[in-house]
Structures are given as structure tokens and as C-alpha cells.
Amino acid sequence: MAVLHGVSQPECLLCSSNGPDVRERGRIIPLSADLCDRCWNKVANELAVCEGATAAPDPEFDPDGVEWVEPRTCRQCHAPVRCYPTNYDRWVELATFELPAKKVPPGHRWRLMRPKAANTPITVATVAIRIGAIDPTPGEPVIPAHKFVCLKREA
């Protein structure tokens, strides 16, 4: 009778390593790829540069703190922005309003998704997803990246 030597661990799709850091990646929409931490960071950083999701995450605040917290603003034009995590664990600054899709170039269209906890109606997060595979209808509202609507953006 054969002896089982343990359960096989997943293998990284890019570097073929095995280990505890190899797992399926993606927040709302699983990316169907088992990647190690090193390969995941490389892929996610490249994707973030392509999509413009290079914002720093919001700082962690003390829930018991009583100090005033200012809303986040653009460093160039000082307009208010909303910062959200993406599906690939990077952050993007979005405008605080929606526009029809026909007024926003395809590379700057984002949508917010709010996943719910399993078997409950409770929303657990808000995640920004860039619209890219299927173009929205011209009148459909999308959230533009702040980079597109920034008053001091480079022409």
C-alpha cells in the first residue's frame, strides 16, 4: 500500500516555486492564477502602472483617537479625491462625482463594486474596478480617475 506524503502545495504560475505564500490572487474577481508573493507584487505593480493605480493607501487611524481627520485632497490641485483599493491590492484616486461614459476616455473609467459577506447582505468593502473588457453605453455613469479631471494635470 502506498504512503501519502502530504497534500501537494500549489505551484507559482510564473516561477514554479511551492510554498505557503503561493495562493490565488485578486479581491472580488479571482485572477485564476496561483502566484507567490514576489511574482504577485511584480505583476500587480506592472498592472497598477498601466491603469494609473499608483496612489498610496490611506493611513491607519486609531479608532479610539479623537483628533480631526481631514478628507484626502489632490497634491496638485487640492480638490477632494476618493481613494479606493483595486482588485489587485493597489490604490487609485478617483473623482468624487460620476460622468457619462462618453465624456471619459476608456483608460480612465472606473466602477465601484461592493462585495458582500458570505450568506449575508452586509457589505464588507468597496473595491475599484477599471472598466476595460466591455465598453459601457455612452450614457452609463462611470467614475473618472482623478488624474483625468485634475485641474493641474499635464496637457
Give a written overview of the molecule.
By secondary structure, this protein is an alpha+beta fold. The protein is 12% helix and 17% strand. The protein has a 4-stranded antiparallel sheet. A two-stranded antiparallel sheet has the order 1-2. It has a two-stranded antiparallel ribbon with strand order 3-4. The chain has helices at 37-51, 146-149, and strands spanning 23-24, 34-35, 82-85, 91-94, 99-100, 109-113, 127-130, 141-144.
Biggest β-sheet: count, sense, barrel? 4 strands, antiparallel
Helix share, percent: 10-25%
Shape verdict: globular
Radius of gyration, Cα only, in angstroms?
Answer: 19 Å
The total of beta strands comes to: 8
Poorly predicted segments: none
**Mean pLDDT, rounded to whole units?**
85
Strand content: 15-25%
SS-based class = alpha+beta
N-C termini distance? 72 Å
Q: Please tally the helical runs, counting DSSP H or I stretches of 4 or more residues.
A: 2
Helix-strand pattern, N to C? Answer: EEHEEEEEEH
**Lateral strand order in the biggest sheet:** 5-8-6-7
Quick synopsis:
The chain is about 10% helix and about 15% strand. The chain has about 160 residues and is α+β, with helices and mostly antiparallel strands.
Keywords:
single chain; alpha+beta; 155 residues
Question: What is the element layout, followed by pairings?
Answer:
Blueprint: E1 23-24, E2 34-35, H1 37-51, E3 82-85, E4 91-94, E5 99-100, E6 109-113, E7 127-130, E8 141-144, H2 146-149
